[in-house]
């Protein structure tokens, strides 16, 4: 079945440093979604990427979808303490007969001053 | 808009007890789903529904039942609670399975002793 892997599992950065998390799928995806979960909170939808090679930006966050639609990345420029949380990717595979959104295991980001 | 409302927020059960986790959404979303979140395991799909009267199993359905009699409500029933069901449970909804971002409820933290 479809597997979605995320690396790293955990990253600790100093405020102001950049951060990147990577998401890799075992199958070609129809789209990929990214979510953020603050400690003790629930996942919150950030963005969806659909097209091969697509790049989208939200302020300091840059999301990329690979050319083969099997990988994605989230890059945060100049992290702030408000960026603390776990970032999940979720890959949507729609084969017509079956469709499935599979979440990655997440990357936990810790930011210290 | 309330979004997705889950009750209760916390629950302690004894092994063998049954209970129902409630989930309601007011966004007229067709798709609703239940996930459990365990440390290091990400979000795993338990059951989902693509519309009123239609439900299907996810990745980890054993020990859980669902029903969808209305568009708004999607309760999750634990038949006979086991310690392995200690987890945080999230309900999520979307306009359409996988093609739009999911809105998550705030979660139910369940402990089975």
Compact summary:
Chain A is mainly β and 113 residues long. In chain A, 0% of the residues lie in helices and 58% in strands. In chain B, strands 2, 4, 5, 6, 9, 10 and 11 form a 7-stranded mixed β-sheet that branches. In chain B, strands 1-3-8-7 form a 4-stranded antiparallel β-sheet, with no helix packed on it.
The Rg value of chain B, from CA coordinates, equals 13 Å
- Count every helix of chain A, treating DSSP H or I runs of 4 or more residues as helices: 0
Number of β-strand runs of chain A = 11
N-to-C terminal Cα separation of chain B, in Å? 36 Å
Total helical segments of chain B? 0
Percent in helix of chain B: under 10%
**Protein chain pair with the most extensive contact, residues per chain:** A-B, 24 and 20 residues
The Rg value of chain A, from CA coordinates, equals 14 Å
Rounded average pLDDT of chain B: 94
Shape of chain B: globular
**Main sheet summary of chain A:** 6 strands, mixed
The SS-based structural class of chain B is: mainly beta
Order of helices and strands of chain B: EEEEEEEEEEE
Low-confidence stretches of chain B: none
Descriptive notes:
Chain A is mainly beta and 113 residues long. Chain A has strands at 4-7, 10-14, 19-25, 31-37, 43-49, 55-58, 61-65, 71-76, 85-94, 99-103, 107-112. Chain B is mainly β and 113 residues long. Chain B is built from no helices and 11 strands. The A-B interface holds A 9, 30-31, 33, 35, 41-48, 88, 90, 92, 94, 99-101, 103-106 and B 35, 40-45, 90, 92, 97-107.
Set out the fold topology:
The complex is a heterodimer of chains A (about 110) and B (about 110).
Chain A: E1 4-7, E2 10-14, E3 19-25, E4 31-37, E5 43-49, E6 55-58, E7 61-65, E8 71-76, E9 85-94, E10 99-103, E11 107-112
Parallel strand pairs in A: 2-11
Antiparallel strand pairs in A: 1-3, 3-8, 4-5, 4-9, 6-7, 7-8, 9-10, 9-11
Chain B: E1 4-7, E2 10-13, E3 19-25, E4 31-38, E5 42-51, E6 54-57, E7 64-66, E8 76-78, E9 87-94, E10 103-104, E11 108-112
């Amino acid at each position: 079945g479809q597997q979605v892997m995320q690396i790293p599992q955990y990253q600790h950065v100093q405020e102001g440093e950049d951060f990147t998390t990577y998401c890799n799928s075992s199958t070609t995806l129809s789209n990929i979604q990214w979510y953020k979960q603050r400690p003790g909170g629930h996942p919150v939808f950030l963005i969806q990427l659909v097209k091969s090679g697509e790049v989208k930006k939200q302020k300091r966050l840059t999301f990329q979808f690979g050319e083969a639609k099997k990988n994605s990345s989230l890059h945060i420029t100049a992290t702030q303490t408000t960026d603390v949380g776990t970032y999940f990717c979720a890959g949507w595979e729609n084969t017509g007969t079956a469709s499935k959104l599979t979440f990655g295991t997440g990357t936990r980001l810790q930011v210290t001053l | 808009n309330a979004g997705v409302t889950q009750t209760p927020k916390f629950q302690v059960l004894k092994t063998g007890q049954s209970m129902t986790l409630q989930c309601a959404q007011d966004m007229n979303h067709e798709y609703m789903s239940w996930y459990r979140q365990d440390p290091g395991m990400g979000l795993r799909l338990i059951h989902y529904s693509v519309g009123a009267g239609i439900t299907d199993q996810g990745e980890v359905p054993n020990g859980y039942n669902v029903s969808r009699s209305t568009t708004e409500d999607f309760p999750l029933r634990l038949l006979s609670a086991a310690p392995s069901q200690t987890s945080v449970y999230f309900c999520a909804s979307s306009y359409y399975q996988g093609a739009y971002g999911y809105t998550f409820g705030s979660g139910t933290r369940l402990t089975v002793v």
